[in-house]
């Protein structure tokens, strides 16, 4: 009697294990399919829509005190672009560097680093949230993106601001990112040229990196070379609006 | 037959509904071996409608969502397998970390550190074997994560899709339970229930489960467990999840104050996740030992079988 029960228990455990493995394998198979990740990805639109509705228009990311800053702000992703043109610019302290703004604008323009530094600036101590899960706090100084957009005058057809970067990956794909105008015109969206009162070092994206305080770290492109205003992101690189987006990450990284 | 009060033994059998009648003679005397064969009394079988359709639907949607959320959550956790308190992740001060150490001989060890105390957890945490059989650096092992190998982007997709399903399901369940008075009639413990808590704990430990009419409704420990999940764990897991969203922190900065910072919220999210794991474990165990098929049937079609004898009811009431 007891023996029988133990056998049954063992059978049940085995059966549960087998079912578990089958389910896991099934889920892995679904993850590899074409249609299922797309279905799962539909949640992104819902998240974006709902977060937009519940967020007051100019809701600001929290700004912290000097004392709240991280002792070490981790560097992540590319920390020394393997790009000969970039390396020449870096060697000359980015004196020859110019930020180009083109695409769907009335007045395409170029800004040198010293010209950017002469524009109105914003300083903010904010928290950087990485998609991996960690957070770090630093003080950033830079020119609000809206200052630059006001100068180049976006055309009505422009829907996205695309950041083309200097850093290629191991197989030569360049980093890039894109945001919409809701975020582009947000007061905390800045092109930062200083971190913690120091000139932005190469590991953190010199000469400028984007700060987009209400989204995750991978949206905040480093080594920005060129800004392009477009009506669609479909034809840029993988067509998903960003380097990581082309590898399956969400375009909307508000969570 | 002394094993009839052995928790691991007889009661499992006793509590199959078919066997319910003889023990019902007295709930206070569980040693009920060999009921007098002379007693001809046949049990009265009664069916009660135990779970309304919306409750059953919500239950099974949760059954789908929770394992996926837990396992995809562990996948996301594995991208940075450490927990912190406060707003920041100070790498030198995690309260929990699942690290990987490489030995001089080229071996790989999993080291779990909790509040500064380190343990070798090779094979389980910090380093474990993948489907290829080789040991790799990873926080939680492949069998506990979704997808099984390291794939943060896909883990996030699973997590957020099923998080929405879980939240919408929870809201609909909450709305239904409020309007139908399921909450106050069935779920929230009455003061009377709470007074019986000591007896209920003792009965549970002795594997004596409610019978007759008592079995048709939730006992006090069930009520506490379910209200705890519905009103504490559920809201906590959702709110701490929202606090990890930089956009939600901009919209609702009080979230950061409520949980003491984003990294604290992440830590609480993790702890509540394991509270769900604990609840699921205990819940499945109790379902199994208090009449597996009767419980299962009632959660699938709603009907719950109650076996009772008129005399037994009378006995119970006069006890």
Provide a concise account of the structure shown:
The complex is a heterodimer of chains A (about 260) and B (about 325). With about 260 residues, chain A is of the alpha+beta class. Helix content of chain A is about 30%, strand content about 25%.
Question: How many whole angstroms does the radius of gyration of chain A measure?
Answer: 23 Å
Strand composition percent of chain B? 5-15%
Q: How many E-type strands of chain B? A: 8
Output mean pLDDT of chain A.
Answer: 95
Bin the strand percentage of chain A.
15-25%
pLDDT averaged residue by residue of chain B = 86
Helix content, binned percent of chain B = 40-55%
Structural account:
With 255 residues, chain A is α+β, with helices and mostly antiparallel strands. Helices cover 30% and strands 24% of the residues of chain A. Chain A has two domains: 31 residues; 206 residues, Sulfite Oxidase, Chain A, domain 2. Chain A is built from six helices and ten strands, in the order αααββαββαββαββββ. In chain A, strand 3 and strand 4 form a beta hairpin. Chain A is elongated. The model of chain A has no long low-confidence stretch (mean pLDDT 95). With 319 residues, chain B is α+β, with helices and mostly antiparallel strands. Chain B has two domains: 190 residues, no CATH class; 43 residues, no CATH class. In chain B, 51% of the residues lie in helices and 13% in strands. Chain B has 13 helices and eight strands. A four-stranded antiparallel β-sheet of chain B has the order 2-3-4-5. In chain B, strand 3 and strand 4 form a beta hairpin. The longest helix of chain B is centred in the middle third of the chain and has 28 residues. The radius of gyration of chain B is 24 Å and the shape is globular. Chain B starts with 10 loop residues before the first helix and ends with a helix. The relative contact order of chain B is 0.16. The N terminus and C terminus of chain B are likely disordered. Chains A and B meet through helix 1, helix 2 and strand 4 of A and helix 2, helix 3, helix 9 and helix 11 of B.
